[in-house]
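Issue: ligand-bound run for acetyl coenzyme *A - logging full I/O for the record.

Environment: standard queue, default settings, no custom constraints.

Inputs:
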Amino acid sequence: MTPVSRHPPSRRIGIIGLGMHVPPKVLTNSDLEKIVDTNDEWIQSRTGIRERRVVEPGTTTSDIACLAAHDALKAAQLDPRDLDLLIVATATPDMLFPSTSCLVQHRLGASAAVCFDLSAACSGSVFAMVTAQQYLLTGRYRNALIIGAEVLSSFIDWTDRSTCVLFGDGAGACVMAPVKRGGILATDMGSDGSAASLLYMPGGGSKHPPSHRSVDQRMHFLRMNGGEVFKVAVRRMADSAKRVVKQATLKPEHVECFIPHQANIRIIEAVAKRAALPLEKVYMNLQRYGNTSAASNLIALYEAVQEGVVTRGDHVVMVAFGAGLTWGSLLLQW
Ligand code: ACO
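Outputs:
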């Protein structure tokens, strides 16, 4: 049965519970030196990444999504049976169909929830939060569980040193609902399909279904033009962050914490400079996890809250950028 809101819409939608999970297995830069021709100094100076987490073979995106979801539901004190909407943002679903969200729903016992996946690559969790916010603002649903989860290690070419050093596995989750104070004050999203070829995985879809040829040509792995992605990411994220600050009628100095997509320290530094957000207000944990794509903003928010970097009343800007191309921001008061 489709859940129908029993509550009138509130003017503000916020986060009422956060969760995360990263697999225990750590892959350091020194470990990578044994796999490809790279070194710790190159990786740290170009990206800021020291280590990342990777799942054991057989562990799926839905597995780690469920673990993050349990934490978020517990923090929100929400029984999974009372969940109305469940969105999983991922570029690495368990399979093309059914959606990973349906697999997660079943395991959580969230039988009343409407479920779908959202494909916006690294912008996925921000896109999913803005999408859920719209459903919650109309009063169509009372609450939503957003999960950003990725097992990128299954889609990375471990012989390609220009990409394999950048990514990691992980999941972040949040429960959203109407709130009496704080909540989301402004949002911004954008897309540019003309630059799709900058970051893509050619194989496995209808264009290049799996075949001996597609496997021989390594089409089932991520491909990226790193230099171009870098430039566009800086411009798009900075401009998007500036827009949400303006939309909320605030100034950069009113933002207490900036939670960018955790791709690369140099991208983040350039975004902060262009958006006039001082670096000391920028939260970063990419040194420990690398780029976890759709999971990155939620994992960073979770840890920023746990560490007391984000406290009640703070204005937080989350900004993301990913394949598509896609970008988006939201400004929320914690
Ligand atoms: N170890 C050692 N050397 C390497 C490695 C490596 N892992 N990777 C590449 N190199 C070499 C290259 O082969 C090249 O050698 P050459 O000069 O002999 O040809 C040299 O290092 C320089 O390569 P560049 O590509 O110019 O290095 P750059 O300074 O641009 O850094 C990087 C590359 C880190 C990928 C950068 O372009 C970047 O961060 N781009 C953004 C990519 C990104 O974050 N994507 C994530 C997805 S999108 C998003 O989340 C925002």
